[in-house]
């Protein structure tokens, strides 16, 4: 099935964001693991794996629409040097990815590609959930302080 060229372009933009997110969250997970912050390691590792699955869904859709998935494009990673800065970078990373996703959904609606729209809406829902989680973490850091936040997230039991 020949896909709309703009839909394919938008899918590749979202794919680029997902491929970058895999690296962003995997690296952050391993930084937190190295620092002994097990809960943040676990959350970021699971996010990286989820982004890999979402990227797989996007690749399959691009191929179905007879397009070529762009696997070589990556955005710049945004990594901080300490826990609060890393969390702020992850928040900014999430916020930066949203406009392309929303634009892609709107275009799919316009050209009546409802299957692709549904795929992208599922990705948006996942990304909004993670954005909400990140905002909650920032609230906690502000309220209890970074030292207490790190202590609370360094417990074992992943």
UniProtKB/TrEMBL annotation:
Residues noted as binding Fe cation 1 in the record, renumbered to the chain: 127
Keywords, alphabetical: Heme, Iron, Iron storage, Metal-binding
Binding site for heme b: 52
Catalytic activity: 4 Fe(2+) + O2 + 4 H(+) = 4 Fe(3+) + 2 H2O; Fe(2+)(in) = Fe(2+)(out)
One Pfam match: Ferritin
Positions that bind Fe cation 2: 127, 130
Biological processes, Gene Ontology terms: intracellular iron ion homeostasis; iron ion transport
GO cellular component: cytosol
Descriptive protein name: Bacterioferritin
């Amino acid at each position: 099935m020949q896909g709309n060229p703009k839909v394919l372009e938008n899918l590749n933009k979202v794919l680029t964001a997902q491929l970058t997110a895999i690296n962003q969250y995997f690296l952050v997970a391993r930084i937190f693991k190295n620092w002994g912050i097990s809960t943040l390691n676990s959350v970021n590792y699971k996010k990286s794996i989820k982004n890999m699955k979402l990227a797989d869904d996007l690749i399959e859709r691009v191929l179905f629409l007879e397009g070529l998935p762009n696997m070589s494009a990556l955005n710049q990673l945004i990594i901080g040097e300490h826990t609060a800065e890393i969390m702020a970078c992850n928040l900014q990373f999430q916020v930066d990815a949203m406009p392309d996703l929303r634009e892609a959904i709107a275009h799919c609606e316009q050209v009546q590609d409802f299957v692709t729209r549904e795929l992208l809406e599922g990705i948006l829902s996942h990304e909004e959930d993670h954005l909400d989680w990140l905002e909650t973490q920032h609230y906690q850091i502000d309220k209890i302080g970074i030292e207490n936040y790190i202590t609370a997230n360094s417990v074992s039991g992943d």
